[in-house]
Amino acid sequence: MSPDTAIQSVRDHQAPQWFNDAKLGIFIHWGLYSVPAWAPLGDDPFAMMREHGFGYYLRHNPYAEWYQNTLQYADSPTTAYHRETFGADFGYRDFDRLFEEQTADWDPAPWADLFRTAGARYVVLTTKHHDGYTLWPSQHPNPFHPDYGSPRDLVGELTDTVRQAGMRMGLYYSGGIDWTFEHPTMESMLDFLDMTPQSDAYSQYANAHWRELIERYQPAVLWNDIGYPVSAEIEAIMAEYYAQVPDGVVNDRFQQRKPIPQWLKPILKPLTPFLAKLMTTGRPTHGVHSDFVTPEYAVYDEIKPYKWECCRGLSSSFGYNALDSKETTLTVRELVHSFCDIVSKNGNLLINVGPTADGTIVEMQRRPLIGLGAWLATNGEAIYGTNPWVVPQATTLGGHSLRFTQKEETLYTILFERPAGDKVVIPGLQTAKDTHIHLLGHHRPLNAHCSESKLVIEWPAEVPESPAYTLSISPRPTWRA
User: Fold this and answer.
1) Residue 474 phi/psi, 5° resolution?
2) How is residue 92 annotated by DSSP?
């Protein structure tokens, strides 16, 4: 295959069926930042940017995995915590010894068991985050810190274990930020967008890492973050990847942004609130190939014609934050509702866990995942392998939220609330005479009839409590808005 033909094949590639059908993945942020495991608690980080400005956000960053960057600001809460806990002379890279000591007895099997129990179909591990520390013993060591990487192949061990458990394994790599190469102090969104190292040395380094990860682990997902050097021939790497993993998928964060000229920054500065909002939304890129887009801590209001994946933490951080509590972590109910909303709009959910440095996934993170898995054990047919319907959502006559999915000739209607009485009335659904309606997990079909463009369903009395309830309606009704 000629280089031009290979590149065209990349641009024609689309998300494979397994990714469309999978719906649920597990994101893992684990690294040196898991040792201090600290960040000031905050709400939606992108709302913080819009409300208080980017400089304030960086000093109060709720992402614990950004610990090293937050240390750059003398007036940040993280800096005060670090000095009090570790001392002013303790550098961030001194955490590597502690991390390696604590990961010595890590066992990947409990992770895989938890992820499978949660109902995940794929897993994505951070192989190198912005701090530059690698979770595998690379043949391409860091030129400034040759031993700055795990001597134990954490990536390989988890990859093998996840696959043995019947799930697919994807890999994350921070291609757009590496603080071992460049770590300027950021004060604005424009500084953030200008952070990618553009030297030939970094381009070759990142290319070598991605090629090594592909060759060694054959990942099902290439999940790049922040961007990629302009001089790198990333589509050539994608072509090599698809040749080795034809049903692999590539995310939308390989954007190659040219450096912003200094004279242009004052002109662009008023656009900062818009840029902060744009970061969360995700949209297909037209300069670099991608199979899906990745809004962060954000979802869409409508069905999208392209594949997307919401990535978010169980709390407001991806890396483990010891300050998190039950109150700052998603409940089972919140997680189930968010997941169903995403799936109804053609999305996947990549829900993150942040293990402690020794690899423990704490109970407050385990609880919602296990609860989601229990819900999926009964309701999974309304999720896996489904497609969006003509509308993603509606409201019952009693004011309760609904989400819709479909598969073959069946419509699945997911109720977010238990009906207050003995009937559920759904405006807009018109069924045929031979329609069969079942409540998943309930042993008998439900009685129902249509009246004035409303579907009236008799609700059984003995239904146990659940985060959400799913009605299977076959054949599919018609929608009359």
Assistant:
1) -140, 135
2) G
Taking residue 352's Cβ as centre, other Cβ atoms within 10 Å add up to 21
DSSP letter for 134, please.
Answer: B
Strands (E) in 367-468, as ranges, are 393-395, 401-407, 410-415, 423-427, 429-430, 436-439, 448-450, 454-458
Contact 121, 168 (CB under 8 A): yes
Q: What are phi and psi of 280, to 5 degrees?
A: -85, -20
CATH label of the domain that carries residue 447: 2.60.40.1180
CATH of the domain at 54: 3.20.20.80
| pLDDT value of residue 283 | 62
- Residue 199 CA to residue 232 CA, distance in Å, equals 10
The amino acid occupying position 380 is G
Q: What is the rounded CA–CA span in Å between residue 409 and residue 394?
A: 20
Domain boundary among 350, 380, 410: 380
Where residue 325 falls (left for φ over 0; alpha for ψ -120 to 50; beta otherwise) is beta
DSSP string for residues in 11-28: HH----HHHHHH-EEEEE
| pTM reported for the whole predicted model | 0.96
Model pLDDT for residues 99-137, shown as the tens digit of each residue: 999 999 999 999 999 999 999 999 999 999 999 999 999
- Give kind and range of the element (H or E) at residue 174: strand 168-174
Helix axes 45-52, 272-281, angle to 10 degrees: 170
pLDDT confidence bin for 448, thresholds 50/70/90: very high
Q: Up-side HSE of residue 375: CA atoms within 13 Å toward CB? A: 27
Partners of 169 in beta bridges: 123
Whether 335 and 374 map to the same domain: the answer is yes
- The first and second tokens of residue 106, run together, are 């890590």
Token readout for 192 is 């953030």
Spatial distance between the Cα atoms of 223 and 356, rounded to a whole number of angstroms: 22
